[in-house]
Amino acid sequence: MSAPLPTRSKPSKAALSFLLGWHGLLSGGFLIAYITGEGSYAMHVFSGVMVLMALGIRVLVGLAAPKGSLLALPTLSLPPADQEPLGMKQLQKLLNNWMAAGLLVLITLAALSGWFVHDIGIDDDLHEGLAEATPALIFLHIAFAVTFHLIRTFPGGTASQIAMAVANKVKISKDI
Amino acid sequence: MIIRTILMTLTFAVVIGCGAGAYALMADIKPSKGFGEDRQIASFLHDDDHNDDHGHDDGDD
């Protein structure tokens, strides 16, 4: 847990397109599955299977992708305590990795428990509980994505400096 | 990038929604469980009739 975050080479356009498409499949499938949870059972099962398929594809691609690649599964290593303060990109990468891992685990558990409810006929309380907890993490994920996007696009790096000061517990100078 | 991500999510949601709708329609067209049970009952009755007929034929012979 103390290894530094691996540096990534510049992501290819194909890898970015794959991730965008995969994200669309997962989020679109989850959206339909969530909406149809109380409605059509057949639609709920179909979209749930799409979610499971997306998760399976991501795990397979992540395992096959070389270490440090954009498609590799997220690493959860924290920087060593004696390391220099985190840069904005490192902080974003760390938060994104933890967020992605948490979301993937929660959605996988929700989808798998749903499959067991459908296939084996176990009680669906666990599935419903996991499914109801997932949107909270999704909204957090969206909030992080929007915040980092705004920080990057704010002029003069003011927001970036403030965010770094907060993250590294440094006093903010008055000239920022 | 955020806009593209949202658009991709909505596009896939529409596509999966259509696929799920088609799947639900197909599932409705197939015999439901209740209908299947009726068919089982009908088949059971038919077998009984058949057995009866068979027995009747045996009796005739």
Alpha-carbon distance between the termini of chain A?
A: 34 Å
Instruction: Give the CA-based shape of chain B.
Output: rod-shaped
Q: Give the topology string of chain B: H per helix, E per strand.
A: HH
Strand content of chain A: under 5%
**Largest sheet report of chain B:** none
Quaternary state of this entry equals: heterodimer
| Unreliable stretches covering 5 or more consecutive residues of chain A | none
How many helices of chain B? The count is: 2
Number of β-strand runs of chain B: 0
The run of helices and strands of chain A is HHHHH
What count of domains describes the coordinates of chain A? 1
Blueprint (SSEs and pairs):
The complex is a heterodimer of chains A (176) and B (61).
Chain A (H helix, E strand, L loop, with lengths): L12 H23 L5 H24 L23 H32 L5 H29 L4 H10 L9
Chain B lengths: L1 H28 L3 H28 L1
Provide a quick synopsis of the model:
The complex is a heterodimer of chains A (176) and B (61). Chain A is mostly helical. Chain A has helices at 13-35, 41-64, 88-119, 125-153, 158-167.
What does this structure look like?
The complex is a heterodimer of chains A (176) and B (61). Chain A has one domain (13-167). Chain A has 5 helices and no strands. Chain A has helices at 13-35, 41-64, 88-119, 125-153, 158-167. Chain A starts with 12 loop residues before the first helix and ends in a 9-residue tail after the last helix. Chain B has 61 residues and is mainly α. Chain B is 92% helix and 0% strand. Residues 34-56 of chain B have low confidence and may be disordered. Chain B is rod-shaped, with a radius of gyration of 26 Å. The N and C termini of chain B lie far apart (85 Å).
